[in-house]
Amino acid sequence: MGNIVIVGTQWGDEGKGKIVDLLSEHADSVVRFQGGNNAGHTMVVAGEKFISHLVPSGILQGKTCYIGNGVVVDPAVLLEEMDYLAGKGVDIGPHNLRISEKAHVIFPYHKALDNAREANDGKRKIGTTGRGIGPCYEDKASRRGIRFVELLDPEVFAERLSVNMKEKNHMLVNFFDAEGLSEEAIHKEYTDYARRLAPYIANVSVELDQTMEQGRFVLFEGAQGTHLDIDHGTYPFVTSSNTVSGNACAGSGVGPGRITDILGIVKAYTTRVGAGPFPTELLDETGQFIQKKGAEFGATTGRTRRCGWLDMVILNNAARLNALTGLVITKLDVLGELPELKICTGYSLDGKTISHVPTALKELDRCVPVYETLPGWKEDISKVKEYEGLPENAKKYLERVEALAGVPINIISVGPGREETIIQRPIK
């Protein structure tokens, strides 16, 4: 296996956690390269569920895991997650969890501003998780951020925090009419976090380079999905980082020539959490059936996910943006029992059929899906281990998706467990 990037092709929640966990067996290291604890990965191992928000899924396989410079980290959440995993018997320590010294740190004022803005925006709110992700990336871009390298230096940390607190409290109190925060309390709390996390902080770029120079394989784990990308998603209903494959390099300090494969994870249908356009959304009994059978609730927030038919306009957009070399189809089993299935092959916009995602939300809101209808299947496929064992109509559905995407399907997931997986084409 080479150095592989895993990305979501839709609006997140595609099942990346399971696939990263599955492929981690063949990798030496796993890297998380963007996002924060606004994302959640769910893995089921031997019937036991594990949920991670910051620690890469490869930790369950005993691999060396890295949190890259492109991630924004809430130390309280990270430490809680580390304790949670350790409590479940997972080996986790400085020997197998490394945090980039260049990763930016989320502070209480980031979360306070996140929630104050959402409350202030009312009906115009984006639907953020309130985890402070966006405000932390704002500070990074405006060069006001505090990275782990600064957090570990008491003098620099105190100076940076003091400057930031004046600005953030002014905004909270005078603009949002919210309560200010205590600089002293935050300083004390984060000084303790720095002490506890110091052994884990490293130059991740250098360590990854050494790993690959030794001929060892690295798996790059993205969060969210392509259409939540800050540049290429359905802006402004997006996340605050680049979720596409190109950011695997920028968010970890690795040159693009090191990447060998890019796998796009796609649900057999489409879901979305929060506000924003969703052309194939089903507001009927079929949508409710998919939501219930697929247990479509956010791993991070518990919010119900909106459900709809598979959208090939969205998938093909992701294939282009990420230069996908393969697809992984997840939750195919959820579609069982439906008499017929639909695939969106294009959009009708003002009487014209288009095959791309309009940038202007006003245009996207006017798009009507153009569907192909395929027959469904009644069989339970969760125990199927080989492609040949799938019902004929399930095969036809997959073959049509593959043909429309122009990208080969490597893996098919028919359930949440590791064993509920069909390897259609092995990854070299």
TrEMBL record:
Protein name, entry field: Adenylosuccinate synthetase
Record has Nucleotide-binding as a keyword: yes
Organism: Desulfobotulus alkaliphilus
Xref: HAMAP family: Adenylosucc_synth
Keyword Cytoplasm attributed: yes
GO CC, alphabetical: cytoplasm
Reaction(s) the record says it catalyses: IMP + L-aspartate + GTP = N(6)-(1,2-dicarboxyethyl)-AMP + GDP + phosphate + 2 H(+)
UniProt pathway annotation: Purine metabolism; AMP biosynthesis via de novo pathway; AMP from IMP: step 1/2
EC numbers for this chain: 6.3.4.4
Binding annotation for Mg(2+): D13, G40
UniProt-listed InterPro entries: Adenylosuccin_syn_GTP-bd, Adenylosuccin_syn_Lys_AS, Adenylosuccinate_synth_dom1, Adenylosuccinate_synth_dom2, Adenylosuccinate_synth_dom3, Adenylosuccinate_synthetase, P-loop_NTPase
Task of the protein: Plays an important role in the de novo pathway of purine nucleotide biosynthesis. Catalyzes the first committed step in the biosynthesis of AMP from IMP.
